Write a sequence for this structure.
């Protein structure tokens, strides 16, 4: 996760992290070192990015399971329309890791 925080600050940074230890970063090829405090400040943003990505992956998989029902030669029931819309709306307002991890997924009809 440290590497993702560094890349959020400087996408071109080249570095090596020993044992995933923030105190053991070697900056490579002339990369200007980034302070530990700046890296730590980005860690919560990276954690949220990962949590949202995980939520969306699960949501997308659930949508994919019912995609065949939404084909032009099929009519979706109102329950299925609501289910799919609730899945699409699920990430809205998830602005903390806790909200992402505790999201309640709708029940498939």
């Amino acid at each position: 996760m440290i590497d993702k925080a560094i890349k959020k600050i400087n996408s071109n940074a080249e570095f090596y992290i020993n044992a995933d230890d923030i105190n053991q970063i070697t900056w490579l090829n002339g990369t200007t070192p980034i302070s530990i405090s700046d890296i730590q400040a980005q860690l919560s943003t990276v954690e949220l990015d990962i949590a949202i990505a995980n939520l969306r992956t699960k949501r997308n998989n659930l949508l994919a399971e019912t995609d065949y029902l939404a084909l032009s030669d099929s009519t979706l029931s109102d329950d299925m329309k609501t289910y799919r819309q609730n899945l699409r709306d699920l990430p809205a307002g998830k602005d903390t890791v806790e909200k992402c991890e505790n999201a309640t997924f709708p029940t498939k009809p």
The mean pLDDT is 94. Residues 2-101 form one domain. The helical segments are 2-9, 36-66, 78-89, 97-101. The radius of gyration is 20 Å.
